[in-house]
Design goal:
heterodimer, A: alpha+beta, ten-stranded mixed beta sheet, six-stranded mixed barrel, 21 strands, B: alpha/beta, four-stranded antiparallel beta sheet, 10 strands, binds adenosine-5'-diphosphate, binds magnesium ion
Amino acid sequence: MKFYKSVFQTIIQTKSRFLSIVTICMLGAIVLTGLLITSIDMQKTMHHYYQQQNFYDIQMISTYSFDEETLNDIKPNTSFIQFENVGISNNKTYNFRVVSDENQYTLLSGRLPQNESEIVILKKTKNHTIKIGDTIELTEKNSINKKTLNTTTFKVVGEVSEPSYIANLLGGTSLGNGVLDHVIYVSKNQITIKNPTHVHVSIPELKQHNTFTTTYEVKLKAITNAFEEKAIKYAQDIENRVKTKAIEQLNVEKAQFEKEKTEKSKALLQAKQKITNNENEIYKKLNNLNKQATQVKTHLEQIQKTLNQLATIKVDEMNSTQIALQKTQLIQKEEMLQSQQTQIQQAINQLDIAKQNIAKAKQTLLNNTKQYEAKIAEASKKIASAEEEIKALKPAKIYVENRLKNVGYHTFKSESNNIKSLATIFPLIFFFVCVLVTMMTMRRMIEEEKRLIGTLKSLGYKNITIWTRYIIYGVTACLIGTTIGVVIGMYFIPMLLFKTYELLFRFPKIYYVFDFKTALLTLICLVVCVATTITVSLYKMLKMNTATLLSNINTTTGRKIMLEKTGLMWNKLKFLTKITLRNTFFSKFRLIMTVIGIGGCTMLLLTGLGLSHAVKTVSNKQYSKIHLFQQQATYKTLPITNEVTIYNEIVEVDDQYAQLFVGDERLNEIINFDQTFNKDDVIITNKIKANIGQTIKVSSVDKQNTYYLKVTGKTTNHIGNFIYVGSNVLQKEHKTVLIKNNTSPDNEAETTIFAQDNITRVQAMIDSIDVVIIVIVILSLLLVFVVTYNITVISISERIKELATLKVLGFYPKEIYRYIFNEVLLLSFLGILFGLIFGEQMFSVVLKTVEGANITFDKSLPLSIYLITFLIVIMFTLLITIILRRQIKKINMLEALKSYD
Amino acid sequence: MFLRVSNVKKNYQLGEIKVEAIKGMTFDIKEGDFVVILGSSGAGKTTLLNLLGGMDTVSEGTITLNNNNISAYTNKQLNDYRRNDIGFVFQFYNLIQNLTVLENVEMATQIVDEPLDAQETLKMVGLENRITHFPSQLSGGEQQRVAIARAIAKNPKLLLCDEPTGALDYQTGKKILALLQKICQENNKTVIIITHNAALSAIGNQVIKVQDGIISEMYYNENPLPIDEVEW
Ligand SMILES: Nc1ncnc2c1ncn2[C@@H]1O[C@H](COP(=O)(O)OP(=O)(O)O)[C@@H](O)[C@H]1O
Ligand SMILES: [Mg+2]
């Protein structure tokens, strides 16, 4: 028991060494677990959020709206209308995505809309340009090219989140500068499109897989393919139904038209008949009347004649009465006939009116007929055009996009994978250095206690018991350090990184994962290394006999180093320099350990600073060294300009996006190619996966155009992917102007893309990488500190007797510092040199892993980074030598007189 | 008087316990003498020598060398004192392992104003053929001779030797003592050696016997014997 108690006393007595082992183990554990766990935490957190929000696996977009039948068959989670629209708020123009309120969202602040002119807006993690209470005025510019909204002015009343948009970057649009600024949710009743354009589908069987795993990806891809096949059928069906409906409608219209036509013509015919009949009757009547009139006239003439005859007859008595009677009779008859004649005349007159009426009716009939003919012509024209329209209907298209294409999902995935890739090589080297230094420290401890070991042995302690002493010491330190480190690593580091990632992504509550496997592995690794060091060092010592251990015979031997065997100047060196050189190169073990230890730290620091530099300068490199234009303005018809013009299109090559530039030699003025660009060239940027000589299939994003291009060259590019095609290869009308100066944008242009916007876009990624880098740099600095401290302490402890002797001999403190610190500085210098040389390799390896598909960092490290790294490590070493002066001052001279080494 | 020690006391405080290593000593030493301090283990010899060599400070009393009050020196003054006035020979030689014999001596001569020639000194201790060797390549006696050379090459006023033969065999020990005697006589250096070997009292001009922190006996030999004539 006493024995074990003494171990803990030793721990207390040598607390600075114990603490340094604890610290180093802690740092190692923090870095190893912290960086490893952060990406796991991030992905788990987002996975749970997606699960909980029932985020879509498949999204389908239809160029025709989805109809009832298709929706019944797909059974989507949600279906809604979506399009993009340019709008103005606070006197600034933004590109809005308008989503019908059928889509689900979660209210974060404000309230839900209460009437149809109120809307909610997607809350962004930064750039809150539109706030609750603001109004948005949507213009007529939209992605559908027809009127889509009943009202255009909306008031924002709430902010919401939706799993489709977890990243601050919302994605691209065909409008304006191509960047989507905001998403708003508008009442369905305000949208003139009636059927949904978008549907979201969740696949139950995918739920069991973490959404960021390859299993998920593979399964989802298979399902996507199945959906794509179905989509073709759906599209066909929708198209057929639309056509059938249109044809049916047309047929109904046609039938009605025919019916109306026959009815109308019949009516006209009847009317005509009636007129003719009437006319005939009138003529008939007229004839009769004329006949009657003639008869009456004849009668009247006869009466007149008779009357005249009567006048000639002599009037006598006898006949006078008869004549008078006759006369009276005749006059009566004449009067009757005369009235008859008047009646006939009246009838004739009436008939004349009827005749006039008929003429009128005839005119009306003529007009009606004319109208009828015009109507028929019009209707048949209409029918013909409807028929034409049906014939001309564009084929329906349904695009299937899976979760992998969601902007939020894939930026998040690539960001978390960036951390993951940083979390492999970097922590390993870090951890390796930690293990190394811990090993050195333990080894030194055993060497220091050589005499104690001898004593214990001579007292009859078993080797295993002595071994236990050091194992307890070492393992306790490892355990404490690793435990603290694991806790900090598993909670603090993710918390810290999450805090900064919150600017880029909308995070739900953090889902901390305690990764027992990693924690245990870290611990086992440290313990095994320490235990091995202890065992090996102790074994060497225990092999010696007790007397040797206790004796003062110095087991170290002075030796000449290479330099003095070759160099002539050796004798001219001061003893301090000599001793520094000899001491430095004397113990190979220590030399190698120190060089690797400090070298490792230097590598880490160089990598960290280098990454930070590469990441920060990438946009500058792109827009001042490669692409020399500030604006990219696209017109309906190209204005007259002196600037370089191109044809420009966004295309897909395999699964990569790229910009297609078709232009001539003038491109050389504005783009720096690795080789001169010719009219016959097809030059691709370095990140496009194709070789020179290969033919690539390039299709526009809307899948309207497909080109097959034979690659003639590759060129360096930093941001984005480009395919530069000579005008001899593709004949395209130039519609885009590449503007060299940053003038104010031309309002005539349909779209203008600014270099500045692109910089903002990559800035997000750059910011997030930078966060991790800062953590890495800070941890590296800590490591540099602890490692140089430990190495210096070990150096001092190894030379404590020499230092005491020097003191007795009357050396001044300054000379003694130099004696020891020159060595430390030289070792440090060698370590830094080693670190700078190999750090570049590490830097380029790590850089590659964080690049991703669209960004190429410049792999060259400027001298200043080397210099800064060098200075930092040297400064740290100097700082430590200053701190440790006290320790040297404290060395008791009487130490020198003690009998043992 | 060359060296004067008067009423010197030295206490060590070990936690609660106060150890009185030297309980009060007074004596004088003449320049050029060969002084033997004799006493059994734990008597306080080393403590006394440390005080004389400026490695430790007295608790009470004064030490003067050539009328300079050493016991009142500051740390800086003590440092200069050790550097210029004292030559120290350790029981375990304390050579720098990574320096050759010559370099070990030169290291000391580099720091003083009027050193002796390093090579000459080594010749004097009889190691002129070993100057390029490292300490580990030498025997114990040879190493001690290097240590003596290192001490005297500084040309100190006082040469202090703490059990210089403690780690050596009889014959070698004798040779070392002879060397020290020779240095004392030929270079007229004041030499103080510590030993627990009573037989050595015969070789000193002055003998100080120490026991339990006080001087138990002190006397002068009119005719000190050369070491060759002493047997033990
Ligand atoms: N640094 C010290 N701290 C405490 N006690 C000491 C110290 N140095 C010596 N002593 C004590 O003083 C006494 C005299 O010791 P020392 O002078 O070494 O005797 P020696 O005559 O054997 O050289 C001893 O009892 C020793 O324990
Ligand atoms: Mg002693």
